[in-house]
Write a structure and sequence with these properties.
This protein has about 375 residues and is α/β, with parallel strands linked by helices. It has helices spanning about 10-20, 25-35, 40-45, 65-75, 80-90, 90-100, 105, 110-120, 135-145, 150-160, 170-180, 225-230, 270-280, 305-310, 325-335, 350-360, 375-385, and strands spanning about 235-245, 250-255, 260-265, 290-295, 315.
Length: about 375
């Protein structure tokens, strides 16, 4: 059997691969650009967890090969160390150390000394997490309860505002997970990340949902009051239906001001079932905190007039194929997939279990709330009307 010749990438090709990866191209797309399979690209990217390695550069203060050749010629001409140092405009101690660590006067060679200096400079530099076992434990515990690295980093800044030793950026946490050679955070913790990727992507995938059909007497989101748009006033909600296998469904509600989440178990996708479940949930909230509901174009809310008559809550519908008009809800649905994965039966979850999941989400700090939790922000709203 004829063996395939192994193909290697040049430095220029590797640089182009990383450029395209950072622009958000897929492995398959990059591979096609080099007439190779994605399996040829994957080892290069995965070796550093999808994070581009830093390009090594010499310090501007380091001796160059030309400097070392001057030292070598000076030694051959039997010049003193101080004379060589004057020619280089360097301290004599620098020249002395350079000669001693590279074989002394008899065995000093400029080329060998330069290559050895490059090797010696390639020593691992510890990240800030590597020397702080307490912080490693705190971060690991938060990851296990499904906090994102960004939420952890923001919470640490609030928890230790005057202690930089116990603060770390979300990028450091990601790097410690994806670059396992650091030996800081265990690889097993990656399973708790929202995205199950084993490599860091530089560009997020957008969530897309299609609008479905026409809804009779629907009030467009364009007619929604401006006071709803700026999120300053609490009581305005966004909603959607997430789908599982075997015709199982859960309604998700997010309050725009606080990002507070409510999950509602619904027996079916038909408008009768969904609207009835939403009416029952609406009666559990103070009237001051349920003023409007913004939904997508799903037919499950076709009977929106019945909902409005029963609750006195105005319903607004997004434009077709415009999920960003319910950005808080779309983001929450993505968060929920950590607890309610796609292609699973959602009917197995009781309302009590859904309340538990919602509570966990509401107790996670959010960057958009300056790392307050939705529960804290929503409780403050309840206190104001109480």
């Amino acid at each position: 059997m004829k063996r395939r010749r192994r193909l290697y990438f040049t430095s220029e090709q590797k640089s182009e691969i990383w450029d395209r990866w950072q622009r958000g191209e897929s492995l398959s797309s990059i591979g096609r650009g080099f007439d190779r399979d994605s399996s040829s690209i994957h080892p290069l990217i995965s070796r550093s967890g999808g994070i581009r390695p830093r390009v090594r550069k010499r310090s501007r203060f380091a001796l160059t090969l030309s400097d070392r050749e001057i030292i070598s010629r000076g030694i051959a001409a039997d010049c003193s160390i101080r004379a060589i140092a004057r020619e280089l405009c360097r301290p004599a101690s620098t020249v002395s150390r350079e000669i001693k660590r590279n074989g002394g006067h008899r065995r000093y060679r400029a080329t060998n000394a330069d290559s050895q200096a490059w090797v010696r400079a390639c020593r691992p530099k510890l990240c800030s997490l590597a020397t702080n076992k307490h912080l490693q434990g705190v971060i690991s515990n938060k990851l296990v309860i499904l906090w994102s690295p960004e939420q952890i980093a923001g919470w640490l800044k609030r928890k230790y505002p005057n202690d930089e030793h116990n603060q770390v950026s979300h990028e450091t946490i990601y790097r410690s997970l994806f670059i396992q050679t650091r030996g800081v955070l265990k690889k097993e913790l990656m399973q708790y990340l929202r995205s199950k990727r084993t490599m860091r992507r530089s560009k997020r995938e957008t969530l897309k949902r299609d609008g479905w059909g026409q809804i009779k007497d629907a009030i467009s989101i364009r007619e929604r009051p401006a006071s709803v748009e700026d999120r300053a006033v609490p009581g305005h909600w966004e909603g959607d239906l997430i789908v599982g296998t075997d015709n199982s469904y859960i309604a998700t509600l997010v309050e725009r001001h606080s990002r507070y989440v409510i999950l509602v178990k619904v027996p079916g996708k038909d408008t009768q079932s969904v609207v009835s479940a939403l009416i029952k949930q609406a009666h559990k909230l103070p009237r001051e905190l349920y003023k409007s509901l913004t939904w997508d174009r799903g037919k499950e809310l076709a009977d929106h007039k019945r909902f409005t008559l029963a609750t006195d809550v105005d319903v607004y519908f997004c434009d077709p194929q415009s999920p960003w008009q319910r950005g808080s809800n779309e983001n929450t649905n993505r968060l929920l997939r950590q607890y309610l994965p796609k292609r699973t039966d959602l009917a197995v979850h009781s309302q009590a279990n859904l309340n538990k999941i919602a509570r966990q989400l509401n107790e996670r700090p959010r960057k958009t709330l300056q790392f307050e939790t939705p529960a804290e922000r929503f409780d403050a709203c309840v206190a104001l009307i109480g």
